């Protein structure tokens, strides 16, 4: 597939938005085709996979990728523009101040360490107290609220029912970072071997799996892949 202005425009859109659900991504793809595709072909959803594959071939050498992820808290698929370098947080130093980046790290840490990887919003705002020290003043809670909104728009976090979750972008972009720093806390889905934060838990054992992985597995088998007991949790 030739690399065209459609690819360039879609990459720019993904980079600007950070995270797009599948419907948003296809709507954007259709709009870009209408503007840049001179073939007058009707855009198809399956064409988008080929466009993203061609883009990834170009940007992989820059440690960048457009990843497709099924995000269990919303049961939706997202396209996420991610940086695969070891310290993606540090790349934001020209955008956010040192106290703001420290707040991001603290929030990432506490969400990772919490039992279900969620925090009440009031708890998130109170984490600003941890941003003081080393010559830094505590981050004002009003600024913390603004940051959470900005980071949620980019897909780093998600708020549902006044509860904060790791967003689809954090789940993908910070997988290496979280495994390196909290390897004794984070676990992997035993079906796809990818780090898992949100999923579905077996009723007979502590195993947690991606819902999408379990749906595929149950097409062939009926037991838990970990404890081998009959799977009884509805999907």
Describe the structure.
- The chain has helices spanning 5-17, 22-36, 45-59, 98-113, 121-126, 141-154, 168-173, 175-181, 211-217, and strands spanning 19-21, 64-71, 76-83, 118-120, 157-160, 163-166, 187-188, 195-196, 200-201, 208-209.
- With 235 residues, it is of the alpha+beta class.
- The protein has two domains: 5-83, Aspartate Aminotransferase, domain 1 (Alpha-Beta Complex), CATH 3.90.1150.220; 88-182, Winged helix-like DNA-binding domain superfamily/Winged helix DNA-binding domain (Arc Repressor Mutant, subunit A, Orthogonal Bundle), CATH 1.10.10.10.
- The strands form four sheets. Strands 1-3-2 form a three-stranded antiparallel sheet.
- Strand 2 (64-71) and strand 3 (76-83) form a beta hairpin.
- Helix 1 crosses helix 3 (45-59).
- The longest helix is centred in the middle third of the chain and has 16 residues, at 98-113.
- The chain is globular, with a radius of gyration of 20 Å.
Order of helices and strands: HEHHEEHEHHEEHHEEEEH
Q: Which topology of the largest domain does CATH recognise? A: Arc Repressor Mutant, subunit A
State the oligomer.
Answer: single chain
What's the number of extended β-strand segments? 10
Sheet with the most strands, sense and barrel status: 3 strands, antiparallel
Roughly how many Å apart are the termini?
38 Å
What does the radius of gyration come to? 20 Å
Query: CATH class of the largest domain, please?
Result: Mainly Alpha
